[in-house]
């Protein structure tokens, strides 16, 4: 089933071909503006007391840069190195690089394929993707396709890493509905640092079933990865320290950039690739964005929003109609902490796209036959913060839940960290779920559609329902997606059994 020929062909091509995509942070010599919204306004979740300042001087703020000076790139799509009748084959090495993110400063990063963030992979529903990953970095790394319905051996288990200089292939069947997924490192204990250093990219499943909807497409379909970072005066990314000090927001790898748009509709695929923060996004002075999709793909119907919140790992898709702004307008996308990105309406363009009143039918999930409780927390009784799920630190060799294939389950997921208050979120591998309720009431505005990651403020409980109608058997993870928390143990294993 795995197509050994495909892999052999890929191995050959990898030796002869290096496809390095350069996405530079080209910043002009514009007026330097330092941050006015940092520090006390930063709403990043307070992490546990795990700060490590032993390796150098404490860095509390990044060098200044000019807001909106650099242009946000559209991250290039990775071209397949080969195609067969059933599969598209990609080469995606893990490569250390020095790139310019802040003007004039070289920043050592870890990349997929040489680009920061990694190249976008645009898969097609029903066609298999094979990704050959050669690890050219000094430490073990791997790839998890977040939101992907994949076999356990291709899910990027924390212990299933690629040694330096080794290569392995990942098989993604793309047998699920169209959705904005993303891929990132999931290596044991090092996932947070690796993702922070750059090992993340967007993975889109294009669904032929969506074509008839006539949503904005082509150059008007723009993935935007949002994340934060802290730089020292030499340009190095600072990983240790408090995540609240990560004072630079990067959109597609560029600090608070501008992005020229036509006065027409755009489909914006927003991905929170930050390892430990939420974004609460609003446009201009609260202008409407039409939400069309969440983690698992299209909503049943579009929903008008003036604010969308996404925590680490979540995705939301909105259609913004820039036709309502005169050419020459500048429209800022804000986080609660300050500007993220400015859209500059530079020209008019024809627009035959639309947002239909009905997007897709979401199948009703069967009645649940199993209910489980999942409690996320830090255990501080030992003096150092340990992440726990139902009281237990992650043990990759332990199975926490056995789930019978084909069943539907309800999970009550609770964030017990009220004092001190620590936000968490919840990510389930393999399948998407529906949020049934939040704190005993209806789902929140950010709980729409099929989800695989959901926010949990301190003390909150979300009730989610998942159908495990899958062809795959084996072990998968569920965890907090604030990656420092999961690397500290806030992660557990379910085993899908026949
Ligand atoms: Cu957490």
Automatic annotation (TrEMBL):
<dbReference type="InterPro" id="IPR002355">
    <property type="entry name" value="Cu_oxidase_Cu_BS"/>
</dbReference>
<keyword id="KW-0812">Transmembrane</keyword>
<protein>
    <submittedName>
        <fullName>Multicopper oxidase</fullName>
    </submittedName>
</protein>
<keyword id="KW-0560">Oxidoreductase</keyword>
<feature type="domain" description="Plastocyanin-like">
    <location>
        <begin position="384"/>
        <end position="495"/>
    </location>
</feature>
<keyword id="KW-1133">Transmembrane helix</keyword>
<dbReference type="GO" id="GO:0005507">
    <property type="term" value="F:copper ion binding"/>
</dbReference>
<dbReference type="InterPro" id="IPR045087">
    <property type="entry name" value="Cu-oxidase_fam"/>
</dbReference>
<dbReference type="InterPro" id="IPR011706">
    <property type="entry name" value="Cu-oxidase_C"/>
</dbReference>
<dbReference type="Pfam" id="PF07731">
    <property type="entry name" value="Cu-oxidase_2"/>
</dbReference>
<dbReference type="Pfam" id="PF07732">
    <property type="entry name" value="Cu-oxidase_3"/>
</dbReference>
<dbReference type="InterPro" id="IPR011707">
    <property type="entry name" value="Cu-oxidase-like_N"/>
</dbReference>
<feature type="domain" description="Plastocyanin-like">
    <location>
        <begin position="237"/>
        <end position="324"/>
    </location>
</feature>
<keyword id="KW-0472">Membrane</keyword>
<feature type="domain" description="Plastocyanin-like">
    <location>
        <begin position="98"/>
        <end position="209"/>
    </location>
</feature>
<keyword id="KW-0479">Metal-binding</keyword>
<dbReference type="InterPro" id="IPR001117">
    <property type="entry name" value="Cu-oxidase_2nd"/>
</dbReference>
<dbReference type="GO" id="GO:0016491">
    <property type="term" value="F:oxidoreductase activity"/>
</dbReference>
<dbReference type="InterPro" id="IPR008972">
    <property type="entry name" value="Cupredoxin"/>
</dbReference>
<comment type="similarity">
    <text>Belongs to the multicopper oxidase family.</text>
</comment>
<dbReference type="Pfam" id="PF00394">
    <property type="entry name" value="Cu-oxidase"/>
</dbReference>
<feature type="transmembrane region" description="Helical">
    <location>
        <begin position="20"/>
        <end position="37"/>
    </location>
</feature>
């Amino acid at each position: 089933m795995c197509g050994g020929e495909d892999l052999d062909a890929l191995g050959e091509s990898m030796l002869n071909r290096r496809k390095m995509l350069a996405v530079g942070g080209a910043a002009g010599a514009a007026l330097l503006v330092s941050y006015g919204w940092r520090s006390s306004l930063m709403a990043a979740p307070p992490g546990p007391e795990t700060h490590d300042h032993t390796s150098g001087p404490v860095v509390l703020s990044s060098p200044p840069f000019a807001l909106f000076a650099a242009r946000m790139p559209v991250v290039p799509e990775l071209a397949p190195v080969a195609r067969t009748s059933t599969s598209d084959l990609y080469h995606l090495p893990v490569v250390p690089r020095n790139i310019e993110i802040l003007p004039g400063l070289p920043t050592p990063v870890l990349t997929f394929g040489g680009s920061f963030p990694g190249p976008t992979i645009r898969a097609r529903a029903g066609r298999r993707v094979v990704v050959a990953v050669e690890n050219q970095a000094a430490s073990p790394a791997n790839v998890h396709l977040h939101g992907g319905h994949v076999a356990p051996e291709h899910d990027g288990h924390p212990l299933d890493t690629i040694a330096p200089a080794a290569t392995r292939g990942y098989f993604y069947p793309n047998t699920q509905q169209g959705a904005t997924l993303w891929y990132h490192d999931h290596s044991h204990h090092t996932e947070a640092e690796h993702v922070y250093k750059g090992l993340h990219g967007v993975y889109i499943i294009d669904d032929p079933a969506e074509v008839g909807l006539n949503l904005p497409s082509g150059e008007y379909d723009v993935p935007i990865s949002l994340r934060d970072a802290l730089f020292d005066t030499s340009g190095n990314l600072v990983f240790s320290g408090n995540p609240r000090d990560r004072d630079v927001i990067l959109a597609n790898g560029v600090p608070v950039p501008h992005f020229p748009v036509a006065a027409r509709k755009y489909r914006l695929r927003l991905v929170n690739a930050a390892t430990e923060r939420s974004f609460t996004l609003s446009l201009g002075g609260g202008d409407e964005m039409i939400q069309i999709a969440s983690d698992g793909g299209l909503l049943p119907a579009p929903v008008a929003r003036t604010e969308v919140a996404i925590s680490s790992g979540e995705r939301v898709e909105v259609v913004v109609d820039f036709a309502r702004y005169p050419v020459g307008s500048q429209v800022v996308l804000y986080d609660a902490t300050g500007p993220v990105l400015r859209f500059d309406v530079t020209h008019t363009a024809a627009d035959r796209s639309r947002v239909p009143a009905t997007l897709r039918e979401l199948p009703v999930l069967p009645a649940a036959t199993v209910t489980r409780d999942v409690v996320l927390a830090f255990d501080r009784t030992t003096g150092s913060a340990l992440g726990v799920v139902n009281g237990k630190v992650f043990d990759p060799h332990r199975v926490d839940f056995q789930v019978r294939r084909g069943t539907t389950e309800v999970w009550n997921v609770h964030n017990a960290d009220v004092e001190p208050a620590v936000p968490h979120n919840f990510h389930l591998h393999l399948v998407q779920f529906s949020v049934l309720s939040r704190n005993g009431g209806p789902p929140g505005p950010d709980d729409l559609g099929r989800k695989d990651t959901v926010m949990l403020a301190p003390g909150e409980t979300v009730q989610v329902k998942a159908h495990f109608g899958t062809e795959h058997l084996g072990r998968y993870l569920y965890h907090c997606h604030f990656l420092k928390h999961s690397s500290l143990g806030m992660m557990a294993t379910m085993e899908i059994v026949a």
